[in-house]
């Protein structure tokens, strides 16, 4: 009995408004469904052989049922609770129904019957409620507008109108095929997102997250302002295995933010450093955010290609953050961390370094050509094998069930988002609106690549504010990316561009969820924390424009182009970081900061990185000279003053 009591305490759902018996029943069923989803995903990833429509519909039905049960338990009104429980029963039907009827659907060419149409209405209702409860209204409005446009398109005059699509046609496209709710986005959710989220949650449960924190402290702790540098590195490293900025803030911020405040960082700056560092996980390989897997599927390249392309921009982001944090520490004259240093690093690696083996393994396996899904399964097995080596990292049956439950918690909003986004994309493809919007952007830009880039950045930012990163990226990939590709950008550069601007809302008002989460821990104002995090994480706004003139930072082009792009972009990021900080050995004047900004713009002269025309060469040489002279003058002037003071 004691075991079952402890098991229930571990899996009990939070925020329950039901009776004790109801809470127990729903919590147990939720955990069973989470375990079932995990089994389906791992089986499909390792063995394959399950038809896409069957796998995706079964996955979505199970996740949706679990989510609606959890939301039902949280409902305060008894009538609302019962409605959500009934809808949960509706949610579980489409998966088994499509499984049982699959061959019949194939034989009739996916032409819908009256029962199929009822099924479509049920799936739509489930999706709308699930999105509303987990994400809000933005995606609901988009989906409903798309469906109304598809149905009443015959009422719209001109080229944006169409003949209209009735319920039967919508059912055939959105439910009976892999073009709608069960389209590519849902496929990525079941094949990649849930699987890698499970791996990340499992690694966090074994203590790998704390290993990252201690390794970062060991590397940076003896440097001035070490706790800030430790926070930046550890949060970025932990982010590589969970891919969620907000979850990362909540996980590592509870430790790093108080530590930074204790050594002298202000509450605002401590929260901003944590928010900026935590959002690095979405752009850093090997396990990036969900949108990275979607990108690989949409472009049609291996995920390892996307991860390799994201490596240098991600490292530039971390570099800029580390430079900014170190300069802030010098400006505030902060102390070093006396408990950190190489001794802590060696002790951590000696005692708990083995916990990093799964992460090292997944990088190695993908580098040798293994598919990401199979590599993830092998690394899950490795994590389970090594976890019993120490008592405090051991994962028993209860711990494994908790990992399954927590994975479902973290991925539920993403699954809801990709279902709704899949519906919108299905309508855009059915009506041809996607191509028309892409043409409209090209027309508004007047054929100017920079005007179109600015319009694209604005559209990406606006969608990123109202939607999860994965949903925003999906819509932008259909609506905007084709316009950029048509202008001559490589597909990876075009998709990375919208990807970066779609996820920057994690640290930019009015949304800034990561910054607001950090502010709630630090005690600083939410908006002031967000503004500070923008200053620290400016690379997300700056680097995407370099994808156009310096695609070498995405590992595209010849060896010389890649080398020049990396060198020039690194110089630009460092000089801009110093300019934004306003301090280098001593406080800088506005004139000196302005010179560094001008130098950065000249270094990033908007022509091809290997262009040798006189104007480009003059601009870049002048930029490097101005930056070098300004930095040399700042450092030597300070040294001279210091020597004179000692002589006197």
From TrEMBL:
What does the UniProt entry say about where the protein is found? Cell inner membrane
Which keywords label this protein? ATP-binding, Cell inner membrane, Cell membrane, Membrane, Nucleotide-binding, Transmembrane, Transmembrane helix, Transport
What residue ranges are annotated as transmembrane?
A: 24-46, 58-77, 83-103, 115-131, 137-155, 167-186, 192-213, 306-327, 354-387, 407-428, 440-465, 471-489, 496-518, 538-556, 563-585, 615-632
Q: Give any GO molecular function from the UniProt entry.
A: ATP binding
Q: What is its main location?
A: membrane
Return the GO cellular component terms, semicolon-separated: plasma membrane
Q: How does it sit in the membrane?
A: Multi-pass membrane protein
Q: In this entry, which stretches build a coiled coil?
A: none
Domain TRAP C4-dicarboxylate transport system permease DctM subunit intervals: 125-557
Q: What does this protein do?
A: Part of the tripartite ATP-independent periplasmic (TRAP) transport system.
Which protein, by its recorded name, is this?
ATP-binding protein
Organism in which the protein naturally occurs: Nitratireductor aestuarii
Q: What is the lineage of its organism?
A: Bacteria, Pseudomonadati, Pseudomonadota, Alphaproteobacteria, Hyphomicrobiales
């Amino acid at each position: 009995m004691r075991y079952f009591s402890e098991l229930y305490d571990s899996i009990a759902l939070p925020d329950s408004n039901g009776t004790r018996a109801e809470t127990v029943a729903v919590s147990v069923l939720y955990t069973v469904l989470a375990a079932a989803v995990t089994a389906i995903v791992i089986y499909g990833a390792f063995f394959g052989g399950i038809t896409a429509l069957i796998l995706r519909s079964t996955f979505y039905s199970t996740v949706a049922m679990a989510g609606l049960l959890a939301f039902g338990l949280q409902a305060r009104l008894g009538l609302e609770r019962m409605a959500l429980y009934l809808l949960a029963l509706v949610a579980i039907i489409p998966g088994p129904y499509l499984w049982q009827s699959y061959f019949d659907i194939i034989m009739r060419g996916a032409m819908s019957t009256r029962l199929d149409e009822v099924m479509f209405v049920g799936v739509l209702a489930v999706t709308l409620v699930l999105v509303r409860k987990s994400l809000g209204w933005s995606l609901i409005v988009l989906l409903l507008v798309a469906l109304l446009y598809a149905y009443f398109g015959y009422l719209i005059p001109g080229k944006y109108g169409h003949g209209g699509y009735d319920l039967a046609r919508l059912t055939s496209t959105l439910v009976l095929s892999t073009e709608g709710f069960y389209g590519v986005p849902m496929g990525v959710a079941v094949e990649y997102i849930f699987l890698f989220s499970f791996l990340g949650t499992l690694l966090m449960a074994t203590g790998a997250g704390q290993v990252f924190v201690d390794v970062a402290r060991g590397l940076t702790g003896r440097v001035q302002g070490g706790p800030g540098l430790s926070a930046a590195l550890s949060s970025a490293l932990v982010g590589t295995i969970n891919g969620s900025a907000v979850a990362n803030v909540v996980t590592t911020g509870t430790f790093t933010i108080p530590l930074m405040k204790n050594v002298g960082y202000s509450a605002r700056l401590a929260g901003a450093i944590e928010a900026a560092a935590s959002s690095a996980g979405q752009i850093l390989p090997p396990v990036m955010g969900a949108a990275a897997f979607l990108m690989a599927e949409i472009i049609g390249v291996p995920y390892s290609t996307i991860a390799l392309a994201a490596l240098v921009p991600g490292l530039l982001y971390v570099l800029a953050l580390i430079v900014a944090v170190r300069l802030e520490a010098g400006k505030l004259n902060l102390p070093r961390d006396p408990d950190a240093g190489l001794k802590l690093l060696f002790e951590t690696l000696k005692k708990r370094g083995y916990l990093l083996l799964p992460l090292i393994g997944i990088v190695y396996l993908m580098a040798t050509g293994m598919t990401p899904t199979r590599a993830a399964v092998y690394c899950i097995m490795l994590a389970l094998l090594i976890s019993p080596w120490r008592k405090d990292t051991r994962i028993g049956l209860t711990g494994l069930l908790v990992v399954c439950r927590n994975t479902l918690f973290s991925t539920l909003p993403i699954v809801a988002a990709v279902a709704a986004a899949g519906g919108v994309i299905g309508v855009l493809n059915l009506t041809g609106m996607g191509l028309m919007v892409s043409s409209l952007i090209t027309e508004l830009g007047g054929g100017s690549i920079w005007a179109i880039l600015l319009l694209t950045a604005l559209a990406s930012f606006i969608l990123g504010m109202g939607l999860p990163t994965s949903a925003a990226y999906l819509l932008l990939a259909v609506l905007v990316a084709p316009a950029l590709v048509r202008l001559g950008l490589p597909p990876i550069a075009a998709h990375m561009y919208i990807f970066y601007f779609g996820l920057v809302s994690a640290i930019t008002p009015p949304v800034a969820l990561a910054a607001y989460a950090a502010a709630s821990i630090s005690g600083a104002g939410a908006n002031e924390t967000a503004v500070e995090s923008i200053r620290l994480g400016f690379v997300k706004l700056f680097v995407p424009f370099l994808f156009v003139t310096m695609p070498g930072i995405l590992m595209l082009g010849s060896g010389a182009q890649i080398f020049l792009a990396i060198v020039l972009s690194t110089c630009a990021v460092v000089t801009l970081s110093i300019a934004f900080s306003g301090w280098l050995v001593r406080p800088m004047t506005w004139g000196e900061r302005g010179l560094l900004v001008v130098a950065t713009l000249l270094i990033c002269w908007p022509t091809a990185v290997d262009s040798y025309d006189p104007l480009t060469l003059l601009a870049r040489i002048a930029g490097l000279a101005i930056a070098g002279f300004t930095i040399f003058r700042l450092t030597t002037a300070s040294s001279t003053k210091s020597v004179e003071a000692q002589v006197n």
